[in-house]
């Protein structure tokens, strides 16, 4: 997921709604949102459904998306942790690679050991460039040896598809057997929280207790043939459901109705606070084309075989960092004062700049400031005291482990 100011935009919206005393409808204007004519924005098939349910629509990565509904971002965040939330993430791009050589092709572009995945399982991976920088992060699933399913970020769609296409044509010109299909005919829903599985189980005959975190299957949900991945972007147990677009609204309605009020529609504002509490990267903020997976704290995503063999773009840079250590590292912080924001400077005890905040805000669950950012290697250990400069003033901070809120992924006991 990508976007730099969702948290600030959401908080601004919450304040304006709370301060409004008049019952006269007022036009919605947001200083943080880019200027765009409504006609220029793409809409998911659930757009009108969001509006009917009180969704506050804002421009996001070229789409009109709900940042929140009638409840506040803080309440929505807490509700997801306690019950369950339903997110429309249809702006993201799902695609399938097929053919006998789809795995060796994909492994030239990503750091994951895709060949080593069991059929029906997936992992987070990173598309890299020639310098080892991250073009995008993605969840990649091996459906079968000749079928890979992956989802890329909305804001990276055009560059990702151009990148994959260019390398695919070169690969095929050398005799490689691989083709792709972009799933624009499908929509994507994310059902997240401790009640996600019990509610979804009411809509399918398949036993969801046998599907663990990171696993993928195809099944019928409420009469629709869906791709189901037990994953998410909140740190909670949950699912991403790829459903034929003509059935997306009906499925969303069925989930809400079956839950008897326990599942709430939730927007991008709470999705951002949930992922930050879970210590997850937001592409474009916490990771970009100049950041390697090693620097971003995603060394675990580089398969053991890939570390030995390389063979992906930028491998020379990345493997050298694995051996010698990266110059900078992504870390978490607790801090005092106002909540840190992207680009706030981080200083050491001597007043020397050692890094920069990439994401930050007030944690609804922990009731204190949290942030993540990059610091020089050697100053990344938990307990290291720092100063975070916010609006020209110095505030105390301390490096801490992530995730800030423990994850609750459904794994075999």
UniProtKB/TrEMBL annotation:
All residue ranges annotated as the GCVT N-terminal domain in the record:
46-304
Annotated signal sequence range: none
Query: Broadest EC class?
Result: transferase
Where in this chain does the record put each Aminomethyltransferase C-terminal domain? 329-405
Coarse class of the primary localization is mitochondrion
The reaction(s) catalysed by this protein are: N(6)-[(R)-S(8)-aminomethyldihydrolipoyl]-L-lysyl-[protein] + (6S)-5,6,7,8-tetrahydrofolate = N(6)-[(R)-dihydrolipoyl]-L-lysyl-[protein] + (6R)-5,10-methylene-5,6,7,8-tetrahydrofolate + NH4(+)
Which GO terms are recorded in the biological process aspect for this UniProt protein?
glycine catabolic process
The UniProt annotation places substrate binding at 240
TM helices/strands, residue ranges: none
- Subcellular localization, as worded in the UniProt entry: Mitochondrion
What are its E.C. numbers? 2.1.2.10
Asked if Chloroplast is a keyword of the record, the answer is no
Its cellular-component GO annotations read: glycine cleavage complex; mitochondrion
Which terms in the Gene Ontology molecular function aspect does this entry carry?
aminomethyltransferase activity; transaminase activity
Q: Name one Pfam family in it.
A: GCV_T
| Role noted for this protein | The glycine cleavage system catalyzes the degradation of glycine.
- Protein name per the record: Aminomethyltransferase
Q: Which organism is it from?
A: Musa acuminata subsp. malaccensis
């Amino acid at each position: 997921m990508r976007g730099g100011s969702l948290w600030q935009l959401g908080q601004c919206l919450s304040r304006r709604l709370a301060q409004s005393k008049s019952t006269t409808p007022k036009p919605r204007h947001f200083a943080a949102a880019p200027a765009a004519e409504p006609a220029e924005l793409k809409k998911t098939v659930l757009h009108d459904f969001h509006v009917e349910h009180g969704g506050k629509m804002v421009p996001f990565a070229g789409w009109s998306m709900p940042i929140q509904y009638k409840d506040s971002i803080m309440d929505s965040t807490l509700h997801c942790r306690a019950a369950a939330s339903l997110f429309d993430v249809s702006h993201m791009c799902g695609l399938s690679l097929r053919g006998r050589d789809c795995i060796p092709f994909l492994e030239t572009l990503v750091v994951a050991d895709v060949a080593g995945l069991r059929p029906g399982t997936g992992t987070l991976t990173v598309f890299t460039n020639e310098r080892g920088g991250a073009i995008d992060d993605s969840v990649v699933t091996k459906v079968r040896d000749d079928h890979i399913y992956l989802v890329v970020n909305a804001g990276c769609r055009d560059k990702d598809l151009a990148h994959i296409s260019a390398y695919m044509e070169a690969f095929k010109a050398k005799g490689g057997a691989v083709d792709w299909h972009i799933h624009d005919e499908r929509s994507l829903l994310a059902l997240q929280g401790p009640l996600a599985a019990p509610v979804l189980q009411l809509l399918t005959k398949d036993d969801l207790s046998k599907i663990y975190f990171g696993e993928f299957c195809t099944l019928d949900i409420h009469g629709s043939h869906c791709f189901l991945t037990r994953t998410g972007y909140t740190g909670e147990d949950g699912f991403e459901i790829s459903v034929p677009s003509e059935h997306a609204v009906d499925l969303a309605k069925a989930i809400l109705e079956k839950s008897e009020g326990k599942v709430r529609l939730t927007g991008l504002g709470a999705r951002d606070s949930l992922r930050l509490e879970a210590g997850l990267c937001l592409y474009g903020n916490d990771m970009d084309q100049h950041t390697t997976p090693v620097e971003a704290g995603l060394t675990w995503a580089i398969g053991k075989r890939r570390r030995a063999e390389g063979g992906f773009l930028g491998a020379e840079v990345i493997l050298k960092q694995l051996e010698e250590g990266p110059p900078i590292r992504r870390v978490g912080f607790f801090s005092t004062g106002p909540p840190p924001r992207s680009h706030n400077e981080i200083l050491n005890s001597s007043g020397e700049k050692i890094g920069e905040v990439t994401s930050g805000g007030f944690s609804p669950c922990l009731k204190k400031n949290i942030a993540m950012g990059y610091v020089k290697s050697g100053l990344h250990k938990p307990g290291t005291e720092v100063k975070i400069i916010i609006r020209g003033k110095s505030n105390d901070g301390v490096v801490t482990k992530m995730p800030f809120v423990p994850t609750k992924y459904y794994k075999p006991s």
